[in-house]
Amino acid sequence: MITDIEVIEERESGVLVLIPVNRLYGPNADSFESLVMDHIRNGEQNLIIDFSRLKFVSSAGMRVILVAAKQFQSKQGKFILCSMKDNIHEVFRVSGFDQVMLIRNSRWSALASL
Fold first, then answer.
1. Which pLDDT tens digit goes with each residue over 39-93?
2. What are phi and psi of 96, to 5 degrees?
3. Which residues, in sequence order, are bridge partners of residue 11?
4. How many helices (DSSP H) and strands (DSSP E) are in the chain?
5. Against a cut of 0.90, is the pTM above it?
6. Which helix (H) or strand (E) holds 24?
7. Could you state, in order of their start, the residue ranges of all structural domains in the chain?
8. How many Å is the maximal CA-CA distance in the chain?
9. Which residues lie closer than 8 Å to 81 by C-beta, 6 or more apart?
10. Which CATH class is domain 7-109?
11. Residues 55, 25: contact at Cβ < 8 Å?
12. First and final CA of the chain: distance in angstroms?
């Protein structure tokens, strides 16, 4: 069973952009959470998670996203999700996550929201 998730890390205009690949779900959610929390502990002030390469997110993956969002809010940082496929965006909308975190259609609009 896969326990790690492929995550592409980029910087755009000085902002960390994480791009998880394929699936964010139970077997790899802890790995992704560790990565995000390491960046927070290392002083990252703003984070964009680009969902363009993500095909599926489970409740375990959504929990990681919520935990990260709360961490950034407590540090007065910006945490923005972007480029979600329609099926993933619908899950975030139905769960109400779109009411508690910024979700943008593109990376460009996420950067413009900072």
1. 999 999 999 999 999 999 999 999 999 999 999 988 889 999 999 999 999 999 9
2. 85, 0
3. 16
4. 4, 7
5. yes
6. strand 22-24
7. 7-109
8. 38
9. 48, 49, 51, 65, 92, 101, 102, 103, 104, 110
10. alpha beta
11. no
12. 37
